Structures are given as C-alpha cells and as structure tokens.
Automatic annotation (TrEMBL):
Reactions this protein catalyses: L-tyrosine + H2O = phenol + pyruvate + NH4(+)
Family, similarity comment: Belongs to the beta-eliminating lyase family.
Annotated source species: Alkalibacillus silvisoli
PANTHER family hit by this protein: BETA-ELIMINATING LYASE-LIKE PROTEIN-RELATED, TRYPTOPHANASE
PROSITE patterns assigned: BETA_ELIM_LYASE
The name this protein goes by in its record: Tyrosine phenol-lyase
EC number: 4.1.99.2
Required cofactor names: pyridoxal 5'-phosphate
Entry-linked InterPro entries: ArAA_b-elim_lyase/Thr_aldolase, Beta-eliminating_lyase, PyrdxlP-dep_Trfase, PyrdxlP-dep_Trfase_major, PyrdxlP-dep_Trfase_small, Tryptophanase_CS, Tyr_phenol_ly
Record-listed N6-(pyridoxal phosphate)lysine modification sites: 258
Assembly mode: Homotetramer.
Amino acid sequence: MKRRTAEPYKIKAVEPLNILTREERQKALEKSGYNTFLLDSEDVYIDLLTDSGTNAMSDQQWGALMVGDEAYAGSKSWYKLEKAVREVYGYKYVLPTHQGRGAENLLSQLKVKEGDYVPGNMYFTTTRAHQELNGGTFVDVVIDEAHDPDVEVDFKGNVDLNKLKTLIAEVGAESIPYVCVAVTVNMAGGQPVSMDNLRETYDLCQKHGIDVMYDATRCVENAYFIKEREQGYQNMPIKDILLEMFSYSDGCTMSGKKDALVNIGGFLAMNDEELYTRSRELVVVYEGMPSYGGMAGRDMEAMAKGIYESIDDHYIEHRIQQVRYLGEQLMDAGIPMVRPVGGHAVYLDAKAFLDHLDREQYPAQALAAALYLDSGVRAMERGIVSAGRNKETGENNIPKLEMVRLTIPRRVYTNNHMDVVADSVIELYRKRHQIKGLKMDYEPPTLRFFNARFSPKEVALLES
C-alpha cells in the first residue's frame, strides 16, 4: 500500500474566509460584470484565480522582511538576490523588476523590432502583447499535441523543431531576435518541456545565431516533471536539474510571484554583457535603479529566501501532488479537462464541458462565473476572451483550447479545500446544460480578459 504524505510545513497563522450565500454571490457577479477578475477578494471563498503573488511565505521569508536594506542604490538586499539568481539559475547578469511583465517589457524593447518574428511554445497573454507592441509577430512552434486536451503526452510543452526550422527557413534567422521557451507552458495547461527538447532547441538556435530566452516563471515545476518522467534524472536533486535546464538558454524573464514564493517582484537575467549594459540603461526608465528595479529591499530579501526554498525536493513534490490530487478527483468523475495534470493548475475543458454553447458565447467565461456562483470558488478563463482579436480582421481569435484554470496558490490551501472545489465542479457538470452563455458588454482594447464586462445572454446564468 502506498503511504500517504502530508504538507511539508505546519500552519503558524490563519486568515478567516468569508462564505457568502448564493444570493450574495449572485449580486457580486452582477457587480463584477461576470468577470472573476473584477470580484472583490472579500467575496471569494477559495481563490484559484492565479498562483501569481498569492503564495504563503515562510517564517524565514517573513523574518527576512525585517532586515531589508531600503537604500536607493547598492542595497545589501539586492546583492543577496543577485547571488541567489546566479547560484540557482546560473546566469551571469541579473536585473530586478517589479514583476515578470516588467522583465518582458525590457526584453521586448531591447530585442524586438518592427517586422520581427518571435517563435514560442504557445503564446502567453502579456508576453505576446509586449512583443506585438514592439512590432513583432508571435509564431506558435509548440508540438501539436499541446492543443489537444485529451492527448496524454509526458512533455506536452515541447518545441516542435520542424516548425522552428521551417520558420527559420521562411523568414531568415536575422528576423528572429530570440525563441521564447516557457517552462512550463501555462496556456497548454501547465505542461512541461523535456531536457532533451531544451537541449535540441538550444543547439538548433546556436547553429543559426538565435538566442533562446526562457519564460522561467514556473521552472521549478518543470524540473520536477523532468525528474519524474525523463530517463536519467530520477535520482538527481531538483537544484541540479534546474541548473542544467538553464544552461540551454541565453537568458530569461522571471516572475518571482510564482516559483520564487513571494507576492511581488521579478527579474531579467542573461549571459550577454552587451545586452546587460543596454538593459541597465533601460531599466531606470521603467523600473528604477538596477539595484532595486521596482522592488523594495525587503521584497528582494524575501525573494532571495524564496528562490532557495523553492528548490527543496520535499516542497516541490508536495506542490505538484496537491495539484494532481484535485485533478485526479475530477478525472475519476469524468470531467473533461487537460491531460495530464500540469504543474500549477487543473484546466477544465470548457468547450467539452459546455458543449451546448457556441464559442462566441464565451463558454470558459461562463463556466468560471458559474463555478463562483455555485460555491464561491474563483477561477480564471483561458480561452477566446484571453486570446483577444486578430489585429488585421478584428475578429475574435479562436484558440483550439477553451479552458477554465483552477490555479493552486503555493502553501495556502489544504487538500480539504481541494475537495470543496472538486465537489462544486462535479455538481456543475451534472447540471451543465443549465449553464447559459454570455455576451460581452465592455471590451478593453488590450488584454481584455482583465477588465471586460459580460452579462448572461438569457435571464440567468444558472438557475438555482
């Protein structure tokens, strides 16, 4: 019999949760325009909107806040963060930013120009937005299996090398400033990239003089999947796997709000001195001095601690297993979802879940709203709303995946909370054909999923 394990930590402080009535949740939905991003936190019972900045910090991290050096330049806390990044990820040069999209902005301004093509293993919303704002065109070079929620592949986030070779042949290496490799791939369901694929992608790019830049936001989760699934890595510590992963890249953007176990902060890292010099000149325009980059000294202290804590093998095993615990309950109940379960979230296949709704009725948005109405659980749409519109035609982009993301914050909830989530999803699936579609009443021009507002196409989203 397989022995069960528990959280590799004990709870030292608690935060009470509000549990609203269904009528109160209905009013909150109406007030927020049926957009879960616009719900007030106090109206949410279990918050699975994102794992970004929603982590619980350790006692060591809280202690580190008290010794933060808030000097404007040359902060001691900055040198601790720089040391942690160099030791854990292996890069020579580091620039702090207020969060990951600050690093994306710097990288895109420095590397992307009008007419460039930026291949990546599936788009991410803010990454693609920054690339496009600087004149680039994103090109998806992820393997085809990543777009099929039902296909079970160990490394669904792999770069399709043939797609990448074809793009290089068509547009020329000089039109490709870098290849963006996400580890793991968020929009594919938190799916990992194999070490072999990282190595082969890097070798191909080196041959053509093209940089490889990681979106390293959930790199520790990717390292765990390599340890679990790829031959030759089962007995290797996570920290060693991580260093090898990063050796097959030229730099990265990083949101410290995920795997680095903090609530704010990020960085841009690289090995090229010339790019680092240009980055230092630009960071003062958008972020702050190169020794704080939009972060307080105390935040840099906490992130440095969090980077080291994130590579503890016991921590990351529990992290992945908790996500899998929720996913396996839903799979056992026959819920349509992305398989295999990814690293940071369980992704419901809203297109199959609500197969009576047309894509233009925003099924993932409707399902996320219905989940909140049913149980107070907040999740996120990842489908047609997130995909935005075609720049040329103005039509909705129709991604193959229409998903609701149940994103698990790190060290925040117990498996009892996961049981509550599972019960709600299973109940909604039982009465799924009662869930109505939505229409968009307000649409922002960029990254519309954050602030768009909706209303039911019929009288009620879901009858009580």
